[in-house]
C-alpha cells in the first residue's frame, strides 16, 4: 500500500481506495463527497454506497462498471483479497480489509462506535496495519450519549412551543440519524425537511430505513404570511439557517448537530443557540479503544488531528504514521460543500426546471 497524490494505492491489486480524482479502479468506503468521487471507470463498494453514488452523481457518473460487494463477502483482485466490513459511519459505509501474502491491512474509512439505527455497526477485525481516521483525535472530544442530546432538543421544543427548531445537519447520514433518534425518543409528529435533504431521506427509506412522517417545509407563501411551523422540528443543511429561507419560520431556534459542537466557541461564532453534540465519527476514547481492539502493531492515520493520535500511540508502544492524504475533508464542518443550502440550489440538484 502506497500513498499517492490521488490517495491510497494498492500496488499489487492495481486499485485505489477512496481516490480524490477519477481513476480506472476504485474501492469506495462510503458516499460522502470527500471519499466518493464521480467519474471512475470501475467502482467496488457496498450496494448501499453504490445506490447513494448513483443518487448523488447520476447513473452515468457513479462508475462505468459498478461492482457491489456485501458486508463479509470477499473478492480477489490480482491476488489481493478484498473484504468489506461495516464501519458504522453512515448507511453503506465500509472498512476495506486487504489480504496479500499472509498480511492484512484494514482501511477504516470514516467510522464511529456508537449504535446508529440507520446503519450497520462497526465490526472489529484484527490486522497487521490499521488505517484510521482522526477527525476528533484530541482528549477534549468525548461525546455524550446521543439520547442525552436528543432529549435536550425535545426539552427545548417543549420549553419554546412558539418557536420552530431548525437543526443543521449533514445531508447524508446525520440528517437520517437525527430523525431516527427522534423517533426512538418518542417524537411521532412530522419532521419537516429543507429541500436539500429530502432526496437522501427518500433514498434511505427506499433502502429499508424507516423515518416516519417527513414533510417538506411549505413553499410559495405570500408576502406577509404569518411565520410557520411553531413547535415543530426542521432538518436543514448547516448553512441554511443563515439564508432567507429561514425567515418564513416562527422565530427559529438555531441548532446544529455535530461533534464540533463540543467547542463552544465554534458554536458561538456560528450563532448556534442550541449546540447538539451528535457525531458520526469516533471520539478520542473510541479511537484508542478501536486501535487496542484491532491489535495492529502499526497504525496509519489518514486525516484529522494525526499529530495528537500518533503521539498517544507512541506512549503505548505502537508505531504511528501520519499519511497526510490530499482531499480529505470533514463532513461535520459547517463549511463543507456537501449539500446546497438554498431551495433554488436544491431544485437544481434534483434536476428541477
TrEMBL record:
Disordered: annotated segments: 328-353
Entry-linked SMART domains: Lactamase_B (SM00849)
GO molecular function: RNA endonuclease activity
The protein's name in its UniProt record: Putative mRNA 3-end processing factor
Superkingdom per UniProt: Bacteria
PANTHER family recorded: BLL1145 PROTEIN, CLEAVAGE AND POLYADENYLATION SPECIFICITY FACTOR FAMILY MEMBER
One Pfam short name: Lactamase_B
Domain Metallo-beta-lactamase: 2-170
Biased composition (Acidic residues): 330-346
Gene3D superfamilies: Ribonuclease Z/Hydroxyacylglutathione hydrolase-like (3.60.15.10)
